[in-house]
Design goal:
Elements (H helix, E strand, L loop, with lengths): L19 E5 L15 H6 L1 H6 L4 E4 L3 E2 L11 E5 L6 H13 L3 E6 L9 H8 L12 E2 L22 E3 L10 E3 L14 H16 L4 E4 L37 H14 L6 E4 L6 H6 L8 E3 L10 H15 L5 E5 L8 H4 L3 H4 L5 H14 L5 E5 L20 H6 L43 H6 L4 H14 L8 E6 L2 E6 L3 E6 L11 E6 L14 E6 L1
Parallel strand pairs: 1-2, 1-13, 2-5, 5-9, 9-10, 10-11, 11-12, 12-13
Antiparallel strand pairs: 3-4, 6-8, 7-8, 14-15, 15-16, 16-18, 17-18
Bound molecules: 1-deoxynojirimycin and calcium ion (CA).
């Protein structure tokens, strides 16, 4: 038997093309054993909550064995759950619990890099320059006297040089290794066929345990072109791959061979496993390559976090992304946020700077934007806590910040910890129900009690209850609409049309706007004003007739 050792019992109730995903960041979701860190038993305990949101699948950020230098995106064993999260049996219990509730499970697959603690890297460090063990990574001699300078001037996504001298991590071979992210995350050499074979087995391992798909982390990074040389980066320059010309360390054509290989493996299962890429590349053409019929099913619409509160800018972003995907038979997985982005409720106000945790304007705009998100053709993804309207936490003391971006740059504004603060489940309690102990790995603002799930369940107009309503209507109505439509801006109003009978309007202007004649209100993010006008910062779904 090839590939499909175990067919998943799970059959998606809705095509992936229309699905709503919910992203769980295990460290911050729910902590069952009270050690201050979220875990899989905590996730299992809240499965009914996830199902109650009306979503179709869960994307789980990495739960693999890891020293946690990058929140688990630095993996030391791809086949083991990290003990802080639980056991492989817990993972299976979570997968089964999802399936029993009709939810699919999409795992994070981090293939560009592993951890310096992975046995592959330990073996490489123990082996001499030029050895087969070193061929799993990019080990190069340095330049200058005694090779004391990095092999090239490349910079890391997280700041600083993309090269680390192996002596910093206990190596004695005198070489440098490439790390496009943190120095604890050595880049794997995808030019080595053994790397590809190892990942084939990892993918099969999790598919055989019932996983329904993969979210492919930083996937353009595995496309590299050798030999490596200087680019001309200036000291202190920051990463900006989407605006750079083609680079030898990003998005080289070889990546597509790997995408096809994974698609073949996923397709050998019943049902076929779903593949969604985190693809940030320099052009729409390059993006479309990733979703050719024999590659990924979908890619995330990353980048909205840089768009300002402006109907024209939003319209251009949506149109541009839609145009990228239009020539393909694929679709976008639209998203407003993730564990890497400033929370939506803080992004369109100055709350991210001022540290306001109770920002009504930010939450009003977030409600409105989620109506846009769920109106768009394609799949959608909601990051945990977004359904509560949580804000970015900006006052975490420096000594508690863990994001390697902060540790490498010293710039707390770049730290992603502020969107990873543990979920508030209850109104009271030292950790607001994250656990029943007193500690959580990052402190929660005490004001979050009123934003807790418990509190919001009680209030029929809460953010949470509103989000459930939007998702339910999306599932029953919007997901059935024609994909064809238009997105445009007029006088500060963003208009999204699906077929001839559905419109979403978002008012990003400063004055109230009339609704078009002949259209009836299905749902709005806030009450229409006394004259039936759509106030600034609101959105509405309309049906013709
Ligand atoms: C993207 C992930 O979303 C992010 O959290 C991580 O730091 C990098 N890739 C590196 O794996
Ligand atoms: Ca725990």
């Amino acid at each position: 038997m090839t590939g499909n050792a175990k067919a998943s019992r799970f059959r998606p109730s809705r095509p992936w093309r229309d699905a709503v995903l919910y992203q769980v960041y295990p460290k911050s979701f729910a902590d069952a054993n009270g050690d201050g860190i979220g875990d899989i038993p905590g996730m299992v305990a809240h499965l009914d909550y996830i199902a109650s949101l009306g979503v179709d699948a869960v994307w789980v950020s990495p739960w693999y064995a890891s020293p946690m230098n990058d929140g688990g995106y630095d993996i030391s064993d791809y086949r083991q759950v990290d003990p802080i999260f639980g056991t492989n049996d817990d993972a299976v219990a979570f997968i089964d619990g999802c399936h029993q509730r009709g939810l699919g499970v999409v795992m994070d697959l981090v293939a560009n890099h592993c951890s310096i603690e992975h046995e592959w890297f330990r073996a490489a460090l123990r082996s001499p320059a030029g050895s087969p063990e070193r061929q799993w990574f990019y080990f190069l001699d340095g330049r200058g006297e005694n090779g004391a300078e990095p092999p090239t001037d490349w910079i890391s996504v997280f700041g600083g040089s993309a090269w680390t001298h192996e002596s910093a991590v206990g190596g004695a071979g005198g070489q440098w290794y490439l790390n496009l992210f943190d120095s604890s995350q050595p880049d794997l050499n995808w030019g080595n066929p053994l790397v590809a074979e190892a990942f084939d087995e990892i993918i099969r391992f999790w598919c055989d345990l019932g996983v329904d798909g993969f979210r492919l982390d930083a996937i353009p990074a595995i496309g590299k072109t050798e030999p490596f040389g200087d680019i001309g980066f200036t000291p202190g320059q920051q990463w900006d791959a989407p605006h750079w010309p083609p680079m030898p360390f990003w998005d080289a054509d070889g990546v597509h061979e790997v995408m096809r290989r994974w698609r073949t493996i996923g397709d050998s299962y019943d049902p076929p496993r779903h593949l969604i890429g985190e693809v940030l590349v320099g052009s729409n053409e390059r993006l479309a390559h990733y979703v050719r019929p024999d590659e990924l099913h979908s890619v995330f619409s990353i980048g909205v976090s840089t768009v300002t509160w402006d109907a024209d800018a939003l319209s251009r972003f949506i149109t541009d992304m839609s145009n990228a995907i239009a020539p393909t038979s694929s679709w976008l997985t639209w998203t407003l946020s993730s564990h890497d982005e400033v929370r939506t409720a803080s992004r369109y106000t100055d709350a991210a700077v001022t540290g306001l945790v109770d920002d009504e304007l930010g939450r009003a705009r977030s409600r409105a934007l989620h109506m846009v998100l769920f109106a768009l053709p394609g799949a959608a993804c909601l990051y945990q806590g977004e359904e509560l309207g949580l804000s970015q936490v900006t006052d975490i003391p420096d000594e508690l910040l863990q994001d390697p971006i902060f540790l490498r740059t010293g710039d707390r504004r770049l730290s992603r910890d502020g969107c990873r603060v543990p979920m508030p489940w209850t109104r009271d309690g030292a950790t607001l129900g994250f656990n029943d102990g007193r500690r959580s790995w990052l402190p929660q603002p005490p004001e979050w009690g009123v934003l807790s799930v418990e509190q919001q369940e009680l209030n029929s107009t809460s953010f949470l209850r509103f989000m459930r309503e939007v998702i339910a209507l999306r599932q029953s109505l919007v997901a059935t609409l024609p994909l064809a439509g238009r997105c445009e801006e007029s006088n500060g109003i963003l208009v999204i049309e699906r077929g001839a009978t559905f419109r979403c309007l978002l008012n990003a202007g400063t004055t109230s706007a009339p609704l078009p004649a002949g259209w009836r209100r299905l749902l709005s993010s806030q009450a229409l004003d006394e004259e039936g006008l759509l106030s600034p910062n609101g959105a509405v779904w309309l049906a013709r007739g």
